[in-house]
Structure to design on (190 residues):
């Protein structure tokens, strides 16, 4: 366990002009919300990468340290339950409330919401409905980028519902692995 490196920096694989410069945050808007949480990367070199501007979005501080943080903790806790847990994290900008500005004055679109789609595989088929779905189970979450309250499960939905909401087809290779009917059961499970 390396802890938080706090190594705020630029992604060396992306030209600076295409990424936010965030050594000290987004100013008046709010916090630098990690898309891949620092706590998910416990090898120092990988933890440093979570502090690149390419991994940050302007996130409401109450959301970032509240319900979203609880969801991130839930995902880390669920990892031990599966042989493999796929996690897709992203944000939406449709309906954005405007722009935030990085440390050199570049405008960055403020996301309107954040999501996670989880697909877990267990060879023991003992979790949820995995026994009838080829060893797979899934769930999704969507939260608006505002000071929301409640529990993370209040924002859960099926993967199919999240796909319709954000316009992304998650886990596109799953039907080829377990068949279309089983994949449909996974994506519409709660």
């Amino acid at each position: 366990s390396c802890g938080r490196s706090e190594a705020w920096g630029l992604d060396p694989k992306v030209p600076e002009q295409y990424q936010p410069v965030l050594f000290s945050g987004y100013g008046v808007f709010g916090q630098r919300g990690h898309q891949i949480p620092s706590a998910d990367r416990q090898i120092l070199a990988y933890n440093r990468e979570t502090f690149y501007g390419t991994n940050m979005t302007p996130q409401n501080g109450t959301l970032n340290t509240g319900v979203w943080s609880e969801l991130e903790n839930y995902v880390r806790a669920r990892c031990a339950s599966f042989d493999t847990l796929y996690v897709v994290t992203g944000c939406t900008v449709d309906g954005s409330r405007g722009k935030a500005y990085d440390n050199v004055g570049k405008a960055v679109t403020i996301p309107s919401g954040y999501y996670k789609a989880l697909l877990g595989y267990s060879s023991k088929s003992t979790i949820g409905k995995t026994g009838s779905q080829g060893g797979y189970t899934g769930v999704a979450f969507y939260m608006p980028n505002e000071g929301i309250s409640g529990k993370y499960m209040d924002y859960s939905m099926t993967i199919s519902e999240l796909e319709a909401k954000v316009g992304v087809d998650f886990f596109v290779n799953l039907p080829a692995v377990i068949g279309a009917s089983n994949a449909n059961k996974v994506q519409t499970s709660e």
Observations:
- The helical segments are 44-49, 61-65, 67-78, 159-166, 174-178, 180-187.
- The chain is about 25% helix and 25% strand.
